Amino acid sequence: MKAPRIAQNFRGRRAVIFTTEGQSLGILEATLRRLGLEPDTRPVPLRQDFELPENLTPDSDLVIIDGDLNLPQAWPDSYNTSILHAPCPTVGLVGTEAPSRLKAMLQLGAASFLQKPIHSGAVYSALYLGVNAFEHVDGLKVSLDDMGERRRKRIYVIKAVAEQMRQRGLNEDAAYDLLRKASMRARVSVEDYCETLILANPDSDLDRGKTKKRCQAR
Length: 218
What we know:
By secondary structure, the protein is α/β, with parallel strands linked by helices. Helices cover 48% and strands 11% of the residues. Helix 2 (99-107) links the parallel strand 4 (90-94) and strand 5.
């Protein structure tokens, strides 16, 4: 897996802040501006329910949520995110260190935390960890999705190899090598190449039963 790029500069990002009014908020806003971020503060009174925004993007936004608030249980359905994952980098503000409040922030995908009262020197570290942890998890998700897609397409590779063996009289290794080199010339993965090949020539494809027998006889 390719190592993810480490983000160190957060200039130009919008920081959407959900917390109560107070001195710590002023310190946080001033520090974010010094770091080149644009604070978008949305004060929420304690014990008041609120909704998370639906217009966040991972490359230009980050969210800072106060664990002392009545946090929503999940992000809006429009993001289609799984539990423990947010649509953009998320930092939790920790006042009361109760397990239930920490759990609520984790379930919203908070990957780093900033202790209250806020000290300006701790803000950059929280942003650094939050943004890069999000990028790392997002990269893993993309890799898993890619692996799943490749696994789904392996049947086309099996069929294409079996067809080359039948047509050209090659052994399995030689047939696969032929397809691999052809996919490299086409600048696509061998799975994509074999899928295109089989779907473009359905009449010449071996039926699934024969394909499985050849693979089992390997």
